[in-house]
Each structure stands twice: as structure tokens, then as C-alpha cells.
TrEMBL record:
<dbReference type="InterPro" id="IPR003439">
    <property type="entry name" value="ABC_transporter-like_ATP-bd"/>
</dbReference>
<dbReference type="InterPro" id="IPR017871">
    <property type="entry name" value="ABC_transporter-like_CS"/>
</dbReference>
<dbReference type="InterPro" id="IPR017911">
    <property type="entry name" value="MacB-like_ATP-bd"/>
</dbReference>
<feature type="domain" description="ABC transporter">
    <location>
        <begin position="4"/>
        <end position="230"/>
    </location>
</feature>
<dbReference type="InterPro" id="IPR003593">
    <property type="entry name" value="AAA+_ATPase"/>
</dbReference>
<dbReference type="GO" id="GO:0005524">
    <property type="term" value="F:ATP binding"/>
</dbReference>
<dbReference type="Pfam" id="PF00005">
    <property type="entry name" value="ABC_tran"/>
</dbReference>
<dbReference type="InterPro" id="IPR027417">
    <property type="entry name" value="P-loop_NTPase"/>
</dbReference>
<keyword id="KW-0547">Nucleotide-binding</keyword>
<keyword id="KW-0813">Transport</keyword>
<keyword id="KW-0067">ATP-binding</keyword>
<protein>
    <submittedName>
        <fullName>ABC transporter ATP-binding protein</fullName>
    </submittedName>
</protein>
<dbReference type="InterPro" id="IPR015854">
    <property type="entry name" value="ABC_transpr_LolD-like"/>
</dbReference>
Length: 230
């Protein structure tokens, strides 16, 4: 059974008097513990599809079922609650709070829970340890390299133990060595910790780290291929 099941998905935006259809009848299944790379030219609809899977946007038509729940039928409030419980997000530019330490940044999603301050701190420390930054918890973002900041962002994304990790160009702002380290970390989270990952990337080398690559072109699913990784 698929963790993510998408059927006849469409998304249309109103731009002035014109309607622009970004996705056209997309069908897609993503299995639990899969690591999928979404690729395609600019304007192909890959970020739109990623946002729909992550519940950041609602479709114009079709169905999105995740873990047996139809998220396309949820209100914005229901989607917000669902995201907080089931999805971790990793973005290209980290989106860290500059005035907070790494540990406090990682704790942010836990502020929506009933956990005590001590438990939030403990969970953040565990997440930082998992991404290899156990000794950087007190550092602010401007005291960390780009790769380290992205590791903090990944720790923040996994601290609530989400069902899905949604990654939008997670290596797009990094040098090649840092990018390789981040991709190896994502592979480990997928392989060793069972995280299901959906990643948008322009970089074929980044896509090679996924188990499967899905190509979009002009809002339509073109093909899907298995990646050969070490």
C-alpha cells in the first residue's frame, strides 16, 4: 500500500484574467520508506506538486491520500494541524531564526505540542546528535557554515518524527562537498531511520542519491526511473 497516493491531480492558478493550469491529471504513488527525487525544467510544476504533497497548498482537482487520509478535502486549519504532525520541511535557504541558537531553532516545531521545556530540549538535542551537530547546539546560525545550517534545518524537520520529509532544493545553496554531506545524511535518514523523503532538485547528482527519480514536464508526469546508488 502506498504511503502517498495521488490521482488525477490538477492545479490551476488565476493570474489576472487568465487561468494557468500548472498540473494536469497527475497520478503518482510513493511507498513508505521511499526516497523520491522530483526533477524537471523551471515551470514544470515540480515545486507545486511538492507543496501539494506537503499540504502547503490545496489542489484544484483530484485526490491526495497520505497514510489513508484525504488531505485534499481538509480545510486550511485542518491542513495546518496535519502538517505539524506528519510533515517535516527542508528548504534551500534553511529558514532559521537568526537570533536563536541551533537548539532553540530545532525546538520551534515542538512549541505546538504539550511537551515540557525539558522534553523539548532533550528532543532537540537528540535531533542535533542525529545530524552530527551535538556540539553546536548553542551556536547561532551566523556562527555556522551553510552545510551546518542545513543540518540544523534537517534536525528541525525531523524533531517531531514526521511521516514525510519534504525537501525543496536542499543542496541548492551549498558547495559540492557540503551538498554531498547533506545528501548522505538524507540517505541515512531514509535507509537507517525509515523516513520517506520527497525532494525537488535541479541537480542530477543530487537525484542520484534518491531511490527513484520522477520527471515532470509542463505539468505532466513524464517518466520514473530507479537510481543506482552505492
Amino acid at each position: 500500500m502506498a504511503l502517498v497516493s495521488i490521482r488525477n491531480l490538477t492545479k490551476t492558478y488565476q493570474r489576472g484574467p487568465e487561468k494557468v493550469e500548472v498540473l494536469h491529471g497527475v497520478d503518482l504513488d510513493i511507498a513508505e520508506r521511499d526516497f523520491v527525487a522530483l526533477m524537471g525544467p523551471s515551470g514544470s510544476g515540480k515545486t507545486t506538486l511538492l507543496n501539494l504533497i506537503g499540504g502547503l497548498d490545496s489542489p484544484s482537482g483530484g485526490e491526495i491520500e497520505i497514510s489513508g487520509q484525504r488531505i485534499d478535502q481538509m480545510s486550511s486549519g485542518q491542513l495546518s494541524h496535519w502538517r505539524s504532525q506528519h510533515v517535516g520541511f527542508v528548504f534551500q535557504f534553511y529558514n532559521l531564526m537568526p537570533t536563536l541558537s541551533a537548539q532553540k531553532n530545532v525546538e520551534l516545531p515542538l512549541l505546538l505540542t504539550k511537551l515540557s521545556g525539558a522534553q523539548r530540549k532533550r528532543n532537540a538535542e537528540i535531533a542535533l546528535q542525529l545530524v552530527g551537530l551535538a556540539d553546536r547546539g548553542k551556536h547561532r546560525p551566523n556562527e555556522l557554515s551553510g552545510g551546518q545550517q542545513q543540518r540544523v534545518a534537517i534536525a528541525r524537520a525531523i524533531v517531531s518524527d514526521p511521516t514525510l520529509l519534504i525537501c525543496d532544493e536542499p543542496t541548492g545553496d551549498l558547495d559540492r562537498q557540503s551538498a554531498e554531506e547533506i545528501l548522505a545524511l538524507l540517505q541515512s535518514l531514509n535507509r537507517d531511520h525509515g523516513k520517506t523523503i520527497v525532494m525537488v532538485t535541479h541537480d542530477p547528482k543530487a537525484a542520484d542519491h534518491a531511490q527513484r527519480t520522477i520527471h515532470l514536464d509542463k505539468g505532466t508526469l513524464v517518466d520514473s526511473e530507479l537510481a543506482v546508488t552505492a
